[in-house]
Design a protein that fits this description.
The protein has about 350 residues and is mainly α. The chain is built from 18 helices and no strands.
């Protein structure tokens, strides 16, 4: 009976988080047309309605979110009154992903902090960030990428390395930037891990399996859509804008969209970041640094409102939000557990 009570309470929490996301994304239904207000969203809308073949640029390879939207759009069309059915489909799918990200953050925060209220504040701060309503719930694919990155963290945190290949494939089908982010995130986590012997070898095999699975997924997807073989490295080289790398790097530092996301989150989050599990901190920092390097290389990352800050938020936003919550709530962590098994779960 206690298990079912616990499970029912967790399900209710997820439902509330999902409804909050629906509220945050409500303006997309009838306040403005996403397809004209956010050009990238218009591209994903075309993929959802007509398939990736109608799109010429690399956005056509980001198929998971548009394909999940299709059945919701088909059922909702003609039954929503003034609401736009396609925007409704995107909002439903993204709300599910963002609510799940906040839920995983809440669960990990409960383990690390031993306090449900503080973990809930962290999840709330995450949902209230500029990036959530203006990117993750705005008809793009950021909500999916953010969720799968958080799922990678949750799997590593709980020691479930066997989930990495499956998550890697789904993340790769969501957005190609997920591939380098997830590899650096999981690779850094593995690299700073103190485990040795057979367990280190086993986790390394699962990490390598994730990398192979992602490469295979990207190659198969892009080759099948394009009609000819495309290797991941060929695709990456093709994105190079041949612009000034230093100029691109400096540009994001002065981009207001990035600072809408990071202005309070980054400085307040860093105040107590060292008290969190070192593997999580190092992995998030390394992947965020890669996002900045890729922005300098490509020069076009993070458009449509959010700059490269969108990617930093997808990678490190949950950790930073939880860290800000400990600062606001006055929580002092003497030693943050590295894995879920290091701590006894508190009960809300």
């Amino acid at each position: 009976m206690m298990f079912w009570t616990y499970l029912g309470r967790r399900f209710l929490i997820w439902i509330v988080l999902f409804l909050i996301c629906l509220g945050l994304g409500y303006p997309t239904l009838n306040r403005y047309d996403l397809r004209t207000a956010v050009p990238d969203a218009g591209v994903y809308a075309k993929i959802a309605t007509d398939g990736p073949g109608v799109v010429e640029n690399h956005f056509r390879f980001r198929v998971l979110i548009p394909f999940l939207v299709r059945p919701v759009y088909a059922v909702a069309q003609g039954h929503l009154g003034s609401w736009d059915a396609l925007s409704f489909g995107f909002l439903i799918v993204h709300s599910a992903f963002v609510a799940s990200t906040a839920f995983l953050l809440l669960e990990i925060g409960l383990v690390v902090l031993g306090s449900f209220p503080v973990a809930l504040v962290g999840a709330t701060l995450f949902l209230l960030n500029f990036a959530v309503s203006n990117a993750q719930l705005a008809g793009l694919v950021d909500g999916g990428e953010g969720f799968f990155l958080m799922a990678i963290v949750a799997s590593l945190f709980c020691g479930r390395w066997w989930m990495l290949p499956m998550l890697g494939v789904l993340g790769a089908l969501t957005k190609e930037s997920f591939v380098p982010f997830s590899i650096v995130l999981a690779g850094t986590w593995w690299g700073v891990s103190k485990s040795g012997g057979a367990n280190r070898l086993k986790t390394g095999i699962w990490l390598f399996g994730m990398i192979l699975a992602e490469m295979a997924a990207v190659t198969t997807l892009q080759s099948s859509i394009s009609g000819h073989l495309i290797w991941p490295w060929s695709f990456a080289l093709g994105l190079n804008s041949h612009s000034n790398y230093a100029s691109n790097f400096v540009a994001w530092l002065t981009d207001r969209n990035s600072w809408y996301i990071l202005l309070w989150l980054l400085p307040l989050g860093l105040l107590r970041i060292r008290r969190f599990p070192r593997k999580w901190v190092m992995a998030s920092a390394a992947a965020s640094f890669v996002a900045m390097l890729l922005n300098a290389y490509y020069g076009g990352m993070g458009g449509s409102g959010g700059g490269v800050g969108r990617y930093v938020f997808d990678i490190a936003g949950p950790l930073l939000s939880l860290s800000v919550a400990t600062f606001f709530c006055g929580v002092n962590l003497e030693r943050a557990p590295v894995n879920a098994s290091d701590s006894v779960r508190g009960q809300p």
